[in-house]
Amino acid sequence: MRPQAVQPVTTSEGALLATIAAGTVRICLVGQPTTEPVPATKALREPGVSFVTLERRSQLRGCVGSLRATNPLYLDVVRNTRRAMADPRLPPVNRTDWPELDIKVSVLTPLTPLDATGPDDLLRALRPGVDGLLLADDTRRATFLPSVWQRLSDPGRFVAALLAKGGWPDDGWPDNLSIHRYQAYEFCDPAPRDPLTE
């Protein structure tokens, strides 16, 4: 049995990150100047990796994240929140979204390489519902958070969909593919919310 990763932040720290993300959305929507308060807790000031997912009535409104720890975790959340509000795949988040917006912050564990030489090796190593997966080669990169297992519970479909997301051809296993897994701990600041006033 493989050991589980250590959760990178406590439950209260994760809740604070979700609150920071919600505050960032609100500030951006009302057009207030932004000054990020520095959290008291050390873990949030250390370099960390996050994804921010915005949903309205269970419909995706934005999802953006990072995979390398280059900024303090709380600033990584702020940055990814702003970027998720303008996810290029979707219309920008606006004031009408706010009352029904669920704001989710996923804090990622460090990437762990998987020594898989083909799809069979990878499917044997994957832990459905646990592993997030990053696939990359010299020109492409694609990842699925562990939460994607809720939609794609079959490992074969999970991997096939991730390869399609990355733009790899579906007629064989890509050359020079690097494979990493990670875990993610999700914290939510849920709707409903009071409408924004002018």
Question: Could you outline the blueprint of secondary structure elements for this entry?
Answer:
Blueprint: H1 11-30, H2 42-45, E1 47-48, E2 50-56, E3 59-65, E4 71-72, H3 73-85, E5 101-108, E6 112-113, H4 119-125, E7 132-136, E8 141-144, H5 155-165, E9 178-182, E10 184-189
Antiparallel strand pairs: 1-4, 2-3, 2-5, 5-10, 6-9, 7-8, 7-9
Helix pairs in contact: 1-3
Give a brief description.
28% of the residues lie in helices and 24% in strands.
How would you describe this structure to a colleague?
This protein is an alpha+beta fold and 198 residues long. Helices cover 28% and strands 24% of the residues. It has helices spanning 11-30, 42-45, 73-85, 119-125, 155-165; strands at 47-48, 50-56, 59-65, 71-72, 101-108, 112-113, 132-136, 141-144, 178-182, 184-189. It starts with 10 loop residues before the first helix and ends in a 9-residue tail after the last strand. The model has no long low-confidence stretch (mean pLDDT 93).
Strand order of the largest sheet: 3-2-5-10
List segments where confidence is low: pLDDT < 50 over at least 5 consecutive residues. Answer: none
Q: State the major sheet.
A: 4 strands, antiparallel
Mean pLDDT: 93
Helix/sheet category: alpha+beta
Helical amount among residues, as a percent range? 25-40%
Topology pattern, helix = H, strand = E: HHEEEEHEEHEEHEE
Rounded radius of gyration (Å): 18 Å
